[in-house]
Amino acid sequence: MELETDTRSGGVKNWELRPGGMLVQKRTDAAESPPPMIWVRVKYGAVYNHVHISSQSTFGELKKLLFEQTGLHHLDQKLFYNNKKRDSKAFLDSAGVKNKSKLILMEDPISIEKRQIQVKKITHVRMEVDKIAHQVSELETVVSKGGNVAEDDVVKLTDSLMNQLLILEKLSANGDTELQRIMQVKRVQKCVETLDMLKKQNSSAPASKDGSETHKQNGSSNEVVITTKWVTFDSSPVDAPSTSTSVPSFTWNLL
Fold first, then answer.
1. Which terminus has fewer CB within 10 Å in the chain: N or C?
2. What is the pLDDT of residues 108-123, one digit of tens each?
3. Contact 189, 158 (CB under 8 A)
């Protein structure tokens, strides 16, 4: 943190806040030198891990380096120095860590359980979003071919996506689990945007006239129109054929 103060002579001096909370005059670029590197020994179980790190690094940065050596996730670690648990945001030099200092690494069971619960919730959301995204893709295919989709289907899928978004917003994830959460949030937002676009295209599609429905044949631009008009026929009675029969006339000659 840098501060600027005015002196009586009218000059300006720059100050910086050191990790230990001490306010000192900022060093010039010529006098400034990189912080020294130190070796620290970290005991994890029965094994000692040697880490080469900057003396002005944080315990959180040290945990990330230990993750590479031990395989224990940095969010599931507890670091002790001088029999005191150290916060991840604290600086090594402020805590008195020097070259060849000894630290103790232990697992944090509460953090492990919490992170596992978060991973399970995010995995469940991902599976639900996969199902919804597949349905959205099917609707998108229908609209791209000139068809219409039911508005109720669009509304139901949108509501389902918003429910999953609420679950993601309630999760307090950290580290890689937070990255997974953000990834699913972006997927949900993309699906909602697609549904909004489909809804607009669906509403702007020209409606068929006279109750007729238009279907496009596969691979053909010809349209088959099915009408529901009824043809009105003349209701006047048809003349019935005459039932009279002609009687043949015979001429009789009397002998």
1. C
2. 999 889 888 988 999 9
3. no
